[in-house]
Amino acid sequence: MLRRIRWAVQIVLLLIVAAILYIYLPQNDIVRVTGTQVVRETRDANTTPPQVIDVRQIQTRTPDNQSIVYRNEDTGMGFPFYFKYSTDTLQADAQALISDEASPRWVVVTHYGLRSELMSMFPNAISIREAEGPDETIIPWFNIIFILVLIGLVLFIRRWFVRRFTRAA
Description:
Number of helices: 3
Strand order of the largest sheet: 3-2-1-4-5
Structural class: alpha+beta
Strand content: 25-35%
Distance between the termini: 24 Å
Shape: globular
Largest sheet: 5 strands, antiparallel
Helix content: 25-40%
């Protein structure tokens, strides 16, 4: 019985870590930029006066004609550590890459985060570059290396704990 509870706790922890990695590791989408805009948002309405900020957005369409809207905000020195300070440059690059359905220009948008219509959340665009086409293959090398290093670190710490506490017993 105790072994099943231990396995259940480990699986739940693994799912939580996987969800956090899915949200905060960079992802790439191949899309066509259809427009950009600046939206005024009220954050922390409980303060006096309420904090009002301008959030830049990039509207796009996927090759199968689904809409994706990205927010374009600086991450600065805070978490997640992308050290993005180029919001204006990214917005200008996105505006330069606007195309229509008749003559599409496909771009790769690197982003993190999720889209939640319920909570009005958008993924944050980190970078944008022109793609070779809508079927370009992108290998997420950063994610692969990060996850391998994380697994190695967890195995190293586990081995250290096992050696340390089996010697003491």
